[in-house]
Queue: 4 jobs
Job 1
Amino acid sequence: MAKLVVHQKGTPIGSWFLEDKRVTIGRIQGCDVVLDDASVSKQHVAIEVVGNDYFLQDLGSANGTFVNGMKVTRHMLRHGDVVRIRDYELRYIDHKAAVGGENERTMVFQAGDLAVITNVLPGAAVPSPGARTTDIKLPQGKLRGIGGSMSGKIVELNRAFTRLGHPDTAVAALFRRPKGFYVAYVAGDTPPQLNGKPIGPGWHPLSDRDVLLAGGEMAEFRVGN
Amino acid sequence: MTLQVEVASRTDPGVIRSLNEDSIAADAALGAVVVADGLAVNRGAEIAAEITTSVILQRLRETPRNAPTDALEGAIASAHRAIRIRASAEPVLDGMGATFVAVVFRDQGLAVAHVGDARLYRFRDGQLDCLTVDHSFVQEQLARGAVTEEEARMSKSRNLVTRALGVAEEAHAEVAEHETREGDLYLLCTDGLHELVDHDDIAAALDVLGSNIELAADSLIKIAKDRGGRDNISVSVVRVGSGDAGRKRGVLDSLFGRR
């Protein structure tokens, strides 16, 4: 279960487990977490439950709420976040997230009222959620044109896939993967070539200074930037 | 008249899980593709996914003259009932269900139905658009402006869907129609793909590899596995027929050693 560990000027003063309900933090009795100091507003900040996440919501406090040094009004808490309210430091600890042991099985969230689902913001189209943030590291690489229309040009391989060649004759593709770059024959009547040899089915790993030929375009692959 | 479509499908258990609880069924001649992701309280996720794709495709085959949206709605109702009947017979299967996306291509259009967070994307004129809106908690939060796009990417609620076939009394499928154009590419996928592979990477795959849909489907699976592959991954890449489809097919056949 997630919890808040609270320090005042470096001295631990307690910790609070976050359950499945709203938690208020402020100066006055009646708040779930009482920070008894004049610089804290009566009701300073709340922590709200949204699905499986906790959101910090500043309640219009006089002196503000800071997370990892940034002033916030609303903030989705992540493991290790440090919330600062003047002399107080509230550290958000979520051990399940910390060890990566989240249960990711798809579950049906029983929304009480399906009608609520259509209650969207007026006007603008709503984007689909983007992919999950991952810390995947991708290598740097580029193509240096040595023949054809890209002669003398440099193409940075900064997309997942990059095309080389011409649709009517031969198209090769380069694939940027965590362990390096790969090349494949995509389409066209003549297979593109890797170091003078036709490229067979599937993806083939590339090494520094490999030479590619596709549809009249010739390029040298270089590792790094 | 059924529009000429070519379909390339791949499903993979991913990097972490041993069991594949996704299912794909496709009939290019009928112009129908169904991709499903099973879920369960106890057991039966893979059974629910398999019932979803097989029953929907079977019912579509039995009703080729119906309007595509009517055919889809009827097929979905059948699959929904089939899951519930099977679950009621075995207590351990109680609560099983599936998210899915099903598409029927006909004439100059398509009909799409979905429940949950399986998606349909369209790639046309260099632009990728998602044609379905997830029935998911995070999608709702985005729609209400309760979370930012950045927060949605980090949310721990990403596994929460708000609808699944077979789970509630009603199917609650969302059905829509879109016009199609020659050369359009469509991607049906489960969340195992879009959970890890971002919009720009999907667009790059369809842009660069789109003339070879088999390679495109293979490579989408690879990129999801490169990014962790935590879930089962399923993709169907569909190309809407164009005048030179025959020539392209010849290239594919030589590429994959077929005649």
Job 2
Amino acid sequence: MIEIENVRKSFGALEVLKGVSLTVSNGEVVSVIGGSGSGKSTLLTCINGLESIDAGHILIDGTEVHARGTDLNKLRRKVGIVFQQWNAFPHLTVLENVTLAPRKVLGMPKEQAEEIAVRQLTHVGLADKLKVYPGRLSGGQQQRMAIARALAMSPSYMLFDEVTSALDPQLVGEVLDTLKMLAEEGMTMICVTHEMGFARDVSKRVAFFHQGVIAEIGPPEQIFGAPQSSETRKFLSNVR
Amino acid sequence: MFDTALTLSDLLFLAQGALVTLAVTAVSVLAGTFLGVLFGVLRSNVSAWVLFPLIFLLDVFRSVPLLIQLILGNAFQAIAGWGWTPFVTSCVILSLYTSAYATEIVRGAIDAVPQTTRRAARSLGLTWRQDMASIVFPMGLRVALPSWIGLTLGVMKDSALVLWLGIIELLRASQILVTRLQEPLFILSVAGAIYFLLSFPIARLGGRLERRWREND
């Protein structure tokens, strides 16, 4: 379970998160929508401790992420994150990209790590690209590789930060299909996204972010069908 | 027909000089690169305010002409009573000189690795050291190599200046022969050819590595 309680975060004078609370139970898929600069992505990077927070608490399975004694490297094994920019390691083959963390972080033997990597890469449809360098892949393929790379650590939670925003329109579908597949398999996911169709079809709850707070949260039927807040209505009428 | 007084033993004398050039260069580039990596990693991770003395020192080594550094360094070690041989003095000064340039190359290479890539590595649970070893170092190496090859070739040629400390390296050896044989153009051509032979393999090796890496991109 991920528990976010009244989290505040500023960059200099700019307060990006102004008291955000959200609880995500195991197996749940929560989509986070909202305008640019509303703090959505910052929240994700705070969840796995890449960013510090100024106030509040984030607990993952009861462990406080930003507590002094927390071993972040250990905690991050549980929380996979995939970014907008897929960030392939260009000097490593696809297979090596995926085996790196299991081998270095978990100390797994090469054969075992490769077995897992091949399984995950097959899962995302890249079984025929194992020995290829990322530079030879399309954006969509690189993004799916990044997903397999995160999954190879067998995380309990997956965070997706606008993973389709940097892709050509015709490549968006293949990545969204991969996310849908994960959701159907019961992965706990928080997806920051601009893909409203995806948010509606896949998530159990949708959170609308506005000016650093969650302005409205509820099942997709509510958010897309009968939004309670005027801000949500305004945002949705603009994106449609 | 072309005629010269240059004998086989003169050529051997030049070859010995070339060996000294090679030795000074090898020691200085190895030590200078080691220090450069160390300082470069510090430079890209520690605030410039903390490193101010180091940065200042390296700036001095980069901006004062090498000849002045050699002569002052030699005088300083004599005054300090360290009793260094000219070879040791030359290697120490050239190493520091090399390290000043290498530091900037390493820092630039580290900074060239995108922050987002490093974030991705850290988010997988890699520690700072694992990130440095598995991601930053190999990616940075590709950025640094061309400049590092250039630095190495530069140091090899600059090492000629150690003749002012009385070391008979390649250039000094050819000067001696020029004085004796009075065939400056021919002897300097031979010396130049030897410099080229020393440099060429390094330049080729660099080109080959770059090509091999580029195939993957």
Job 3
Amino acid sequence: MSYTIDSKAVSQEPRPGQCLRTFIRDAGVFGVKKGCDQGDCGACTVWLDGVPVHSCLMPAHRAKDKQVTTVQGLEHDGHLHPVQQAFCDAQAFQCGFCAAGMIMTVAALDEEQRADLPRNLKGNLCRCTGYRAIEDAVHGIRSTDDDIAGAACGASLPNPFTQGIVTGHARYTMDVAVENLLHLKVLRSPHAHARIVSIDQSKARAIPGVVEVFTWEDVPRKLFSSATHEDHLVDPDDMYVLDNVARFVGQRVAAVVAETEAAAEAGCRALQVEYEILPAVFDPVEAMQDGAPILHSKGNEAKGNIFVTIKGEVGNVESGFAEAAVVHEKTYSTSRVQHAHLETHGSIAWRGEDGRLHVRTSTQAPFIAHQKLCYLFGIFPHDLHVFTERVGGGFGGKQEMVSEDLCLMATMKLGRPVKWEFTREEQFIGATTRHQMTTKVKLGAKADGTLTALEVHVVSNTGAYGGHGSETLAASLGSPLSAYRCKNKKADGHAVYTNMIPGGGFRGYGASQSTFAIECAMDDLAEKLGMDGFAIRRKNMIGPDDVIESVWSDPSDVSFGSYGLDECLDLVEAALANGEGLPAPEGNWAEGTGIALSVLESGPPTEHRSGGEMRLLPDGSYHLAVGSTEMGNGSINSHRQIAASILGTRGNNVDIINADTDLTPYDTGTFASTGTVVAGQAVALTAKALHDNIVSYAARITDTPVEDWSLVDDAVMNGNRRIELTELYKIGTEAGHRFDAKRKAYLSPRTIAFNVQGVRLAVHRVTGEVRVLHSVHAADIGRPINPMQCRGQLEGAVAMGYGWALTEHMVYDDHGKMLNPALRNYHIPAFADTPRTKIMFADTHDTIGPLGAKAQGECAINAVAPAVSNALANATGVRFAHLPFSPDRIFDQLSVTA
Amino acid sequence: MNPFEYTRAASRHEAATMAAGGATVIAGGTNLLDLMKLEVMTPERLVDISRLDMDDIETTADGGLRIGAMVRNSDLAAHEIVRSTYPVLSRALLAGASGQLRNKASTGGNLLQRTRCYYFYDTAMPCNKREPGSGCQAIGGATRLHAIFGASDHCIATHPSDMAVALQALDAKVEIENATGDIRTVELESFYRLPGNTPHIETELKPGDLITAVIIPPAKGSRQTYRKVRDRASYAFALVSVAGVIEMSDGKIAHASLAFGGVAHKPWRNAEIEQMLLGEAPSQDLFRRVADTLLRNAEAQGDNAFKIKLLHRTLCAVLTELTEG
């Protein structure tokens, strides 16, 4: 045998032109992942004769007569490799998708290389962790706590799927072998705005292996939105599965289904499409002008391209500015960025032996996708099953149904299983992005710094389709303004259709964009007043006795379940002053410090609900089913911890299944920071109900007061009297009792979370390069259910914030075409780009969220970019008001001498 | 990726013969495979030279270094003599790609990397380098990463290699063997071509030519650095880079060789500025004049105008650093 994978001979030969990555996966070794397929992300790293290489950039033939080792072949005599064990101990992953490749790289490092991780981990990207946990793993640091009965909540328990993740056996969306599988690929529009006149399919159909071609004439002529929310009316139904008008470069034009991916791709290329090019508009301000090309005609042409306008005022800003001693007015803008979760979008659909349709997918909202699919294709809800297994990152990008529909339609028409996996390029040009927003801020203050008026004007570029357009705009006008106490506030904003890729949900969701503007403006105002960033915030930030109010005076369901903003500010101030962090590098660098705060309601203003189901099992353990998605956010772990804590048991005694329309109760979706406050609440209510069920049954059969009974790890106790749960289960079920419970949770009322970011950085006076020297972050997220995970979520959000501030940018040409749709040119932070951030928690206990907890996954990102801008201003005296802060935008404004 | 025929060459002669017959040579394959996946390059036949005996690093009779074409970038960067005598080269290599890539990428292949111009990579766009005569979409397009020296009306792309910039400053030569077994050496300076009206012809290599080694003469200066300005700390192609080799004697500049990356179709060198420095005492005024001279003929293409000023500043900073103390 000439090919050997993980010491096993492989009988098949590579196909001509096959790369090693797909050859390994065809052999059933799914531990080798695809993050980019271009040698940028490292998720496919394997060893060739012990040397780590990207298997995606290696012709499979080259592995002939060599030993290929994957993460699945690292175990020795049934024991984890020390690096696998170290990744377990440090929990050096969140979604886990990068871990397979990361472990292979780390396991091949020598001592000298381990001492220089910034250089030696260049070839492996992680989008979730911010790399601190990975560094800990390399250095053998353990972060996990022991799993003690009754103490699960508040303990740093490891992810329940740890073993599978570090050994490569955890199954992500594409990690299944499906017999008789067909492959779907999509031809995407090269034009920003064009009518499809005709599509000649003959050449495509003549390609061997091509089975079917779908165009706009083959899909249900039903409008829908790919955005997912509980209330579907918040997103406009403005798209078709396939349309005869393309409104952005990258929009789907046609789908080809074939026996192989290569044939499907060849089929797409062979389609001959005649386009009638239409005038296009990319800038939202231009799109609002008279005479601009109109994207959608829905009977309200009078509004032109303005999808929605939101405005409000409390008090009277005119009089507020009149009483101001100082007025500051400036425009700030944020860039278009992509989630870049390492697992791209993708689905596999098939008709099961049960006659029903099944969709295995990578989504944050399987239940809403289920509803949309039923609607689009006229499926009776019971006949469709949508589910996830492991999901490789989301960050809001998977709050969108962008792959399931075509896969399902193809399987319905062709009767065979159909798979569609996005390429990394498609992820950039055919999914969604953060909304680009431009925000004008006007602030007025008395001489002592007291705000007298706050006015904000936002223009949001929602792109070709309006999903999330209204909600992100509302979010941008909401919490960032309520962060400050001010009698007179006014805001208005427009979300505008343009021929750009659609905006979507993205961690921080609209609030990120205007937080950037407002927090920069607060520092600019402070500068004019001769105050520092702490003083102006302490003077004006919302306090526990204030009304939480943006620009609408109508009653709100948001209140302080807890308040720790003041503590966060104190923690950051002390941490920045403690002398930690790095000194400025040698050379011609200017140093500066900046802070910013952010405030976010725990959950969206729209409806959100979740359900839990639990039952006691014959062996005395528990089964928990909850509908929310785990995509690296840690909810699957925190949910079992909540349940275990209430049931007096260990986390490991609770088996959990999630995000499956057959096997779990309904859940709106895991987005808008609801994983803990809604789904976690449902779990808490369910566990409490099951607890009560069990102890009351024990009380009933013993004829004793229920108050005397309590649950411990594997028994119910009444003083010294003990009934094992296995025994109780037996007695109960024989008597017809059912030890199970179901409960639902709804979002309202909502609590509010706080974050403060502090940055000390150096900027090179010659070249404009920025180095972060000290990064500190304080969060008031209530009681951390799993402190290690909460720290990781915050570190990951902060790292993503640095990417947005410094290195990430989607570059477009004048025709709306993205020029850098690859991870080598679109720079998500690598290890060396990501400063370690000291994470601190305010000591609060929330009265609204479950077990004292509140939202934590999103809000941390919002304060990062403005803190960086404020630090740059402090270092250089120049306000950089437009993201990102790449060297070429900075150096020009600096003097080379101090 | 299109299907291809794959042959592992048994000898240099076989490889050169196959290449002369139209096969594409694959060494490390890190760039080639990527280009093939994107169908920027669609070779029907690949001839693999990775297991030919070309992976030695030897000192030459005159005290220089001969680097086999198949020496991996990771091995070259870590080589003791390279680290001690040619630190500009070691730094340039480490400023580049990830470990996984350097483990595969070869010395010869690194020299032959294709440009990372967005338009070259996008097969939906015209590109004179990819499809001669089709036009250049980069001109008047997004040019942030493009050339300020030596561009033509047909192509404004830059060469992506860091290693080649360092080799240029070290006066390296390329050793080439053809299908008939003839061996010749070419100065790196003349190995690369400017785009002119044939941007698809990037080097002096003829069909059937194999790079067998890179030869570096003894270092002419002990003060060496590679300064790369890029969008982020981890890795990114250079916005601009400066490779500098300087020798000082009695407070005067006794040798200066300078090469520039990220600014032209090839590693850029300017004999006039090196001459200006020779025999002079270092001063900011001198460095400014040198940088002014270098950039006198620079030509911006829109978005990349910043490179002129950035290179000016960076060169002054590098000269200051290398002549201090």
Job 4
Amino acid sequence: MSRPKSPRELFVAFTRLALQGFGGVLAVAQRELVERLGWLTKEEFVETLAIAQVLPGPNIVNLSLMVGDRFFGLRGALAAVAGMLAVPAVIVLALAAAYGELSHYPMAVDALRGMGAVSAGLILATGIKLLPALQTSALGRPVAFGLALLAFALIGLLRWPLVTVLALIGGAGMAIAWWRLK
Amino acid sequence: MSMPVDLGSLFLHFLSLSLLSIGGAISTVPEMHRFLVERTGWLTDSGFTASIALAQAAPGPNILFVAVLGWNVAGMQGAAASLAGIMLPSTVLTLTATRWMRAHRSHVAVRAFSAGMMPLTLGLIIATGWLLALPFLREETRRWGALALMAATIALTLKTRLGLVWMVLGGGVLGALGFV
């Protein structure tokens, strides 16, 4: 196993992997951190990601914080997350600024419309891809799928505020899981 | 129609969503929509969807769509306020919780939290996709092109290993040519 020599090396590595990630950085993160740099084993990567996903915040940002923290403490965490965000933020804001000009051209608006349809499709596909994860849920299959369906209906169809749904569905899920696991 | 822009409440809105963004900030998109489009009117419906599409089209983590939303509300200051708001609480929590969770991986509370939250997270992801798809479904004239493009995207994502960037760019080309 190798490790980064300095927070600076962390910053560069995370900038590099962020810039390769169009429409999602996770797959690139695995390839870079595990396969190319060898900073984490495959098992360590999966374990870190599992915790990153449970915690609030973007899982890839949480993962950067955790990897940085592991090698250089707080300095490392900040270097990794800055690498993940700084250069891509400049690029995306430049695009947003240019879009103000471009929006006078119908073709640019139509192009973005097409991209919007694709990104709606990508998010739906991600949801569909992850659904089978519920099959092995500690909640049992019917409860897990039922709660997911209910969450979709309350948010997507009835437009309830997230806080209410989180308290209701998240609370119910955790209570049932606790009861089944203990 | 819209309320005057107020950077403080923009920051506080995203701050309040930070700890709720389990499964990524994308899962709080419905709540951002309620606030920025329905309640304050700072963004239009199509401006909201376009901001997210723009961030998806650019390289980097998806969280940057929050910066684009802020940018479209109030320029550079708006981008800084919204990104700082969504990042601060979750970053502090992640750094403090990480070691504890690593040490207590097999504790029943950690496992109950993770298992109990999973259905909600998945329901939220699908609701997010649904809400982003709705403006396309509501439009009469080019509804079928958009629907076909979404269906193709889902099929390609599930059945092939095609890079996501090619799908986003392909959607842009089809859109520019007037098919969607």
